[in-house]
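Hello Y.,

Per our agreement to keep a running log of every chain we model this quarter, I'm adding this entry. I've kept the format consistent with earlier entries: sequence first, then predicted structure.
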Amino acid sequence: MSANLINGAGRSLGAVMGMIVAFGLCVPPARSVPQGQQSAAPGESTDGLLQAGVDGLKAGKYKKAEDAFRKVLEHEPDNVRALLGVVQVYRAQAKYDEAIRLLQAQIQKDPARLDYHFAIGDIALQGGMYDLALREFLGVLNRVDKFSPAAGDLYFRIGQAYFRKGELDFSIIFLRQARDLQPRNALILTALGTALNQAGQKEAAEATYRWALNADANNFQALNNLAFLLAENGSDLNAALDYAERARRLFPKLQAASDTLGWVYFKKNMIDEAIGILRDVVKENPADALYRYHLAAALEKKGDHPAAIEELKAALKSNPSKEDEQKIKDLLASISK
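Predicted structure for the entry above:
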């Protein structure tokens, strides 16, 4: 199936710092301390505490990580790495409001800090606060070189926010600007392909997915989405099968990949193979309406109408999207005639 590609997953601390550098912002280095002196708590160096915080984050030991970062801040209130470390601890626990408040307090001291504005936008996007994300990203964009790689990342994030708001026209506009600045970025290309597909621009979406694979032949989401798109329009089912199989080899336990492969089997009239794989998908994801619809379609084509009807009725109880609900009802009506 066509997975949601526009991903709001939180950045690692290192990635956030990398974006700050990309904006050309000043990141204060660790203070040079004469031998025998400590910049943090007695017996603990700043670098050691920062590393302990990063290690705690990686291990999911959030209290340990926050304690380490805050010890640095007690003695070095302006340490950017420690501050963003605490922010990342909050993000990892989905405490988005707390992370944003912490950054906003810092911005009150220095409103010109683009790194903090960017971080707020990134957190707001992850937390579903799309209007706030747009305000922050657009504010940063207006103060950076609009032809720089950093601007490309901002256009991408703005495109993400509009996509999640359902404003596909604006999403496509900004994602295209991101693509123009970073034409070999497979993540941007795949996101653009998804937005075009959602907007009904199927040919443009197909071409964009192919560009993404040209940039990264092992881009799972481009492989999976292109396979699903080709299966849906029936233009090249052999290619769809190849892409679907490659995607599943990359992530054999991911149900979205298995569903896509099962749907390609269905479109190629390999019904037994389709039913076999789609049964397993539904077993692992019984609450997914689209997965049940796909299994029902295969069962109906096999001639097992009672089982197909059972799956369709279960699908209607699984909170399908409006588009999927109509597909389910149409198939149910055709079987019941």
